[in-house]
Amino acid sequence: MIVVKWFFLILPVVSTLNALAENTPPPANTETRPALQLLDGKQALAKMALAMRTMNYQGTVAFLRDGKLEPMKYSHAANNGHEQEHLLSLNSPLREVVRETGKVSCLYKATQKLVVDHRPFERSFLIELPTDINQLDAVYEIKLAGEESIAMLPAYVVTIKPKDDLRYARKVWLSQQWYLPLKVVVYDQDEEVLEELMFTELEVKDALPFVGLKPANANAALSSENNEEPVSQQMPFVLSVLPKGFKEVFFTRKPMHDLEQPVDHLLLSDGLASVSVYMEHKNAAQPLVNLDSNRVQAIDAVNFFSHTLGDFELTVMGEVPSETIRLIADSVKLRDATR
Amino acid sequence: MNEEMNPKISQFLDNELDYDEALDLLQKLRANPELTNKLNRYEAISHALKTDQFLNLSTDFSEKVSQQLQHEPVYLLPRKKPANRRFPYQWLALAASVAVVSVLAVRSLPHLGGNDKVPATSLQVAQQQTPKTLPNSPVDTPKTESEIPLNARINDYLQAHNGSVYANNPNLKSMARVTTYNQK
């Protein structure tokens, strides 16, 4: 009798579950479904970082910033741990940019002028990711948000949402086939698009040539080399408080503005967003326009703030909200007040 | 009866009747065409006296207009939602006027003080600047003294901050577009 009771009790439950299962739509793409179940957001980003470093790929990428579109031919060559990124502008001013072994070189076609910047702390023109994706856990929430198509290629969508108001959100579309980034969007706190880049076409090759940037006329070339090797000197300032997740990445001291006077440059990063702190002696010939204006200013997606600190002028700059800029600027103290 | 109504009509036109009296008069006008005509005549006279302009309309002018309106076709169109009239327009107009006066007053203050060399704000500088290039840029454009400090420094800083400026900023000319806003 008890068995019969249990039977009639369980029967409607089983029937309901069965009906629900039948009404559930089948997965749109059965080939990609298993991968989606295996991946989470961080796994996807880790695979993307690895693919970006090790694969040979090329295509056309559109950089969209503040309503301006800049289409460029992009290629990435990798061979035995050696990498090179190559960008070629499609519109004026025509220029070629190469990132290789910690430096970025830009050759302006019209004047054959070559500019070289040492940038050992950067890895890609497309998106900067930390070596260990887990580093982002403290300040970002990373989720696999679904599947879409970009440039007619099926893609996973990964959302990177900040856990506080001190950094911007990002969304990354990466190829399901190669795990390469197809589209990257940076959103401000109002969820408005700040920056966007997107491949309109992308192909993967077995090998791609490494490009050498040389001015056509070596005598006419006005090569400008900004040696930005890391310096061992102690920083003249300290940051009493850093926003959560930000770490000191790089410090250098070098002349700027075509002057002999050196400028101290400290780069901070939370793994995705970076902030630069610049300090130099007051320069009556070139005063900062916004000095002591008590306001954060913006150039496209980059916010910056300047003020005086003793005999020095301080500028904090980065692709972070204005609150973060002020927080960092206010935390900078001179290490030696008599300096 | 109609003679008694004449002063009422006159008072009505001068807006001297209270609500109940005006309502009573309008109801009587509705029932008495002769009184309606009288109202129209008084209104025309009043208008002519006040404005020195007189249009000699026939007594059945309003009747003809009413008949014409009755012959107009009826369109059953969806009615637009009434606009949100939470904020009276006159207050908005007053606020706008105060804002304009404030801006004009602030702009005139330096001149009143005799100090013509007031440092321009960053926003003003940005608006006045013509596109310019980096010190390392291949494009040479004439520079004015006022625009050199901001762009030379900030452009140098931007270039040192992120190598991607070579990619997504064609020649950093756009860097002149600086915006300023108050800290929250």
Give me the number of helical elements of chain A.
4
Proportion of residues in extended strands of chain B? under 5%
Q: Output the helix-strand order of chain A.
A: HHHEEEEEEEEEEEEEEEEEEEHE
What is the CA–CA distance across the termini of chain A? Answer: 93 Å
Query: Helical percent range of chain A?
Result: 10-25%
Low-confidence stretches of chain B: 79-85, 110-149, 173-184
Low-confidence stretches of chain A: 14-36
Q: Classify the helix fraction of chain B into a percent range.
A: 55-70%
The computed structural class of chain B is: mainly alpha
Distance between the termini of chain B: 73 Å
Number of strand elements of chain A: 20
Rg of chain B, nearest Å: 35 Å
Biggest sheet of chain B, in brief? none
According to DSSP, the number of beta strands of chain B is: 1
The fraction of residues in strands of chain A falls at 35-45%
Kindly report the CATH topology of the largest domain in chain A.
outer membrane lipoprotein receptor (LolB), chain A
- When the domains of chain A are counted, the total is 2
Instruction: Give helix and strand order of chain B, one letter per element, not per position.
Output: HHHHHHHHE
Key structural traits:
heterodimer; A: 339 residues; outer membrane lipoprotein receptor (LolB), chain A; 2 domains; twelve-stranded mixed beta sheet; six-stranded antiparallel beta sheet; B: mainly alpha; 8 helices; elongated; disordered C terminus
Provide structural commentary.
- The complex is a heterodimer of chains A (339) and B (184).
- By secondary structure, chain A is α+β, with helices and mostly antiparallel strands.
- Chain A has two domains: 33-205, outer membrane lipoprotein receptor (LolB), chain A (Clam), CATH 2.50.20; 229-334, Phosphorylase Kinase, domain 1 (2-Layer Sandwich).
- Chain A has helices at 2-23, 33-38, 41-54, 322-331; strands at residues 56-65, 68-79, 82-89, 95-100, 103-108, 113-118, 140-150, 153-162, 169-175, 181-187, 193-205, 224-226, 237-239, 247-255, 262-269, 274-281, 296-299, 302-309, 312-318, 332-334.
- In chain A, strand 1 and strand 2 form a beta hairpin.
- With 184 residues, chain B is mainly alpha-helical.
- At the A-B interface, strand 2, strand 4, strand 5, strand 6 and strand 16 of A face helix 7, helix 8 and strand 1 of B.
- Strand 17 (296-299) of chain A pairs antiparallel with strand 1 (179-181) of chain B, so a sheet runs across the interface.
